[in-house]
Write a structure and sequence with these properties.
single chain; 350 residues; alpha+beta; transmembrane helix; Tolloid-like protein 1; Sperma_CUB_dom_sf
C-alpha cells in the first residue's frame, strides 16, 4: 500500500509536470499569436495613417489652391474697384478744376462793362466817371461810325491812364476800323499821363477800348472826334490822279491816306509825281509816301519817299495792282504831293 502510494504520487507529479509543460507551451504559442496579431495590427494602422495623411495633404493642397484662386479673384476685383475709384476721382478732380476755372474766369470778368456806338460828324467821348477816377476792372469800348466816304480825326484833350510796365495794367487802345482786330494806331502812348497824338482813320470807323486792372486808377481821358472828306480811295481804269488832303494847301498832321489802283490784267501801273513837298526826316520816319506791289502794305515795297525839291522818279508796279499810302506825324506839315498814274503793257496781273 505504501509503494502504491509512492507510485501514485510520482504519477501525479508527472501529470503536474506534464500539465505545466503544456501550459508553458500553450502560453508560448499564445505569445507567438499575440505577436503576429500585433504586427498585423501595426501594419494596418500604418496603412490607415498613410491614407489619412494623403487625404489631409490633398485637402490642404485643395484648400491652398482655393485660397490662391480666391486671393487672385479678390485682387482682380480690388484692382477693378481701385481703377474705378481712381477714374471717378480723376473725373471729380477734373470737374472741380473746371468749376474752379469757371469761377476764376467769372471773377476775372470786368466788374464795370460798357459799350458805346457813336455816329455823327463830331462828338466827345470820355472814360467812365470822368473827370473823377475811373473804377477798377473796367472793360469799355467805343465805336465811332461816320458817313461813308469820310474820315475821322480823333484828338485827345485830357489823358491820365495809370502807368504800368508795357501797359499791362490799365491801357487804352485805338484801332483804325470798327473792331479790335483792325490795325492799331500808334498813339505814342497807351498808358501814363502824356497826351497821345491825334489819329486819323483811313475809313469811316474808329474803335477804342479801355481796360483797367483792380489796383490804382486815374482820372481817365477825354477826346473829341470830327470828320472830313476822305482821302482813301480805290481806283480802276487806265489813268487817274491822286493828291494829299487840302492840296495845294498844307496837309494836316497825323494824316493817313491809302489808295489802291487796279488796272486791266496783263498791264502794269506807273505813278509819276508832278509836285512833291513833304517834311524831310531821316529814313522818312515822319511824313512819307509808301508804295507797294499788290493791294495792301503787305505787298513788295517799291518806294518810300519824303522831302521836298525835285519830284521823285516814276515808280512802276510789277503787276496790275498798286498800293499807295501817305502818312504824316503830329509835328510840322507841308504842301504835299500830286501824282498821275497810267498803265502800260506788262506781266500778267493779280
Amino acid at each position: 500500500m505504501v509503494k502504491d502510494t509512492g507510485r501514485a504520487k510520482n504519477w501525479r507529479t508527472c501529470q503536474k509536470v506534464t500539465k505545466k509543460k503544456k501550459k508553458k507551451k500553450k502560453k508560448r504559442e499564445m505569445g507567438i499569436g499575440e505577436i503576429y496579431g500585433k504586427e498585423v495590427l501595426t501594419a494596418a494602422t500604418a496603412a490607415v495613417v498613410v491614407v489619412v495623411v494623403v487625404v489631409v495633404v490633398v485637402v490642404v493642397v485643395v484648400v491652398v489652391v482655393v485660397v490662391v484662386v480666391v486671393i487672385v479673384v479678390v485682387v482682380e476685383i480690388v484692382e477693378v474697384v481701385v481703377g474705378t475709384v481712381v477714374v471717378v476721382l480723376v473725373v471729380v478732380v477734373a470737374a472741380a478744376g473746371v468749376a474752379a476755372a469757371r469761377v476764376a474766369a467769372t471773377a476775372a470778368v470786368a466788374l464795370y462793362s460798357c459799350v458805346y456806338k457813336l455816329t455823327g460828324n463830331s462828338g466827345t467821348i470820355q472814360s467812365p466817371r470822368y473827370p473823377n477816377h475811373y473804377p477798377n476792372k473796367v472793360q469799355c469800348t467805343w465805336i465811332i461810325t461816320t458817313d461813308p466816304g469820310t474820315q475821322i480825326v480823333l484828338a485827345f484833350s485830357a489823358y491820365d491812364v495809370v502807368q504800368s510796365r508795357l501797359c499791362r495794367g490799365d491801357v487804352l487802345n485805338v484801332h483804325d476800323g470798327g473792331n479790335q482786330f483792325a490795325e492799331r494806331f500808334d498813339l505814342n502812348v497807351r498808358c501814363g499821363n502824356r497826351m497821345p497824338r491825334s489819329s486819323i482813320s483811313t475809313g469811316n470807323q474808329i474803335f477804342l477800348s479801355l481796360r483797367t486792372d483792380n489796383s490804382v486808377t486815374g482820372s481817365g481821358f477825354q477826346a473829341q472826334w470830327s470828320t472830313f472828306q476822305g482821302c482813301s480811295e480805290n481806283f480802276s481804269g487806265n489813268e487817274g490822279t491822286i493828291q494829299t488832303p487840302n492840296y495845294p494847301g498844307d496837309y494836316p498832321n497825323n494824316a493817313r491816306c491809302e489808295w489802291v489802283i487796279r488796272s486791266e490784267p496783263g498791264t502794269r501801273i506807273t505813278l509819276t509825281f508832278t509836285d512833291f513837298h513833304l517834311q524831310r526826316s531821316g529814313g522818312c520816319g515822319a511824313d512819307a509816301v509808301l508804295i507797294h506791289d499788290g493791294d495792301s502794305q503787305a505787298g513788295t515795297p517799291l518806294a518810300k519817299l519824303c522831302g521836298a525839291g525835285a519830284s521823285p522818279v516814276p515808280v512802276t508796279s510789277s503787276s496790275n495792282v498798286m498800293f499807295i499810302r501817305f502818312q504824316s506825324d503830329q509835328s510840322s506839315h507841308d504842301k504835299g504831293f500830286r501824282a498821275e498814274w497810267s498803265t502800260n503793257e506788262g506781266s500778267v496781273g493779280i
